[in-house]
Amino acid sequence: MTSVTLAPLSGTDSKLRDALAASGLPTADLGYANRLFYCATNQDGYIVGYSGVEGCDDNVLLRSVVILPDYQGQNLGTRLVRETLSAIGGTSAVYLATTSAASFFEKLGFVTVDRAEVPADVLATQQLSSVCPTSATVMKLTRPPS
Length: 146
Prior knowledge:
This protein is α+β, with helices and mostly antiparallel strands. It is built from five helices and seven strands. It has helices spanning 14-22, 76-88, 102-107, 120-123, 126-131; strands at 5-9, 35-41, 47-56, 59-67, 93-98, 110-112, 137-141. A seven-stranded mixed β-sheet has the order 1-2-3-4-5-7-6, sandwiched between helices. The two termini are 15 Å apart. 32% of the residues are buried.
């Protein structure tokens, strides 16, 4: 079983930006305030992916989750999300927006929510207000990732 270790990373890191862009994920607001990013490495010390979170008053937006192509298909995405959620801890509600990975996040305990049910602080993020298309699926964590 491959483990994933997280290390904090600046939103201005070029490898993070390149990995997100290559995966078709937004990069326009990486350097803004209230964002925390992580570099994920495997037990051999190789970078396998990235993740990020954005603080939204009493809520958190999970964002920028990507596994590098050479490491996909190894269940590392699940481990990366688990470790990211563990790193942020707390009792905040966790939301995300996705255009292509809803089924992946459903397996981890997220459910689709109507935008009308999303708190204003989350809707006001760059991700939900302008970066992600309005057609993106918004999801909320309802149970710890399995």
